Amino acid sequence: MKKVLLAAAFVAMPFFLAGQAAATPLIVNTTLGNISTAFDAVITGTGTTVVTSKVVNGQNTYNYVDKDGNAATVAVTRPDGTAPSFYGNYGTLSGSTWDIGPASSLGDPIPGFNSGLTFTFSTPVNAFGFEIGDWATCCTAVVRDPATVATYGVLAKGSGLWIAFDGGAATLPANALSDNDNPGFASSGEYENFIGAIDSSGFFSKVTFFGDGFGEILVAGGTLRFASVPKGSIDGTVPEPASLALLGIGLAGMVALRRRQKASKV
C-alpha cells in the first residue's frame, strides 16, 4: 500500500502543479465598500503596491510611478482613438466619470465596443479596475446579435461589461440578467459597483473596457486602480474536485514516504 501511495504522490503532484501553473484571470465585481478587500488585498498579498489615480473631469492622461520607481503615464481614449466624453460625478463614485453609454458605431467588432474606453499604459500592467455607475438598470433583457454570441460564447441576452487586454479577444466578466446582479444594488439599492480584472499570465500595455446594455447611461471612472503583480502569482480558478483529490493522494504519498524514511533510521 505504501508503494502505491508513493507512486501516486509522484504521479499526482506534477499534474496538480501543472494545472495551477497557467493563471486564469481573476475577475472582481463588488460593492464600492468592498474594493480594499476584494481587489486591493489580493494585489498587496503578492507584495505589490496598488496604484490609484482619481479621475478628474476633463483630464484624460494621468501620471504615476511604476513598480520600478520610474515615471509613467496612462492615457484614456475611445477604442477607436478619439477622445472620450465626460459625464461628471455620479452618485457616491469617488471621482469624475466618463460616459460609456453603449452605442453602435461603424467598425464595432462587438456592438458597443467603440463607445467604451481604452487605457494605454507607458509601463505594462496586469491588474486594472475602476468604478461603474448605472449598470444593470433598465436593460438586462437586451438581446445580443447571434454573431457575438457564437464568436465569444456568451449568453444571448443581458447587460454586459466587457474587457480585453492588449487587443486580445474580449471577455465578459460581468453579465446582468436582473438588477440584483449589480452587487451595489443587491447590497444597498444603488446602481454602483467596482469591476476589476487581474491577469497574471503576462503584462499588458492596453486595457479596453465597454458595455453592451443598450439604453443604459453607463459611466466609468471614480478612481483608477492598477498594478503589476508577478507572473503566475494570482489564479482566478478554483481547483476542481478531481484536482483536489489528486493533491490529497499526493500528500498522502508524501506522508507515507516520510514515515518510511523515519522507520528505516530506527
What's the quick description here?
The chain has 266 residues and is α+β, with helices and mostly antiparallel strands.
Describe this structure in words.
This protein is of the alpha+beta class. 26% of the residues lie in helices and 30% in strands. It is built from 5 helices and 13 strands. Strands 1, 2, 5, 6, 8, 11 and 13 form a 7-stranded antiparallel sheet that branches. α1 (2-21) crosses α5 (241-265). The longest helix is centred in the C-terminal third of the chain and has 25 residues, at 241-265. The chain is globular. The chain starts with a helix and ends with a helix. Residues 1-22 and 238-258 have low confidence and may be disordered.
Write the topology of this structure.
Elements: H1 2-21, E1 26-30, H2 35-44, E2 51-54, E3 61-65, E4 71-77, E5 86-88, E6 97-99, E7 117-125, E8 127-133, H3 146-152, E9 159-165, E10 171-176, H4 183-188, E11 192-198, E12 204-211, E13 219-227, H5 241-265
Antiparallel strand pairs: 1-11, 2-13, 3-4, 4-7, 5-6, 6-13, 7-12, 8-11, 8-13, 9-10, 9-12
In DSSP terms (H or I, runs of 4 or more residues), the helix count works out at: 5
Run of helices and strands: HEHEEEEEEEHEEHEEEH
Q: Using DSSP, what is the number of strands?
A: 13
Largest sheet: 7 strands, antiparallel
List its traits.
single chain; 266 residues; alpha+beta; 7-stranded antiparallel sheet; 6-stranded antiparallel sheet; 5 helices; globular; disordered N terminus
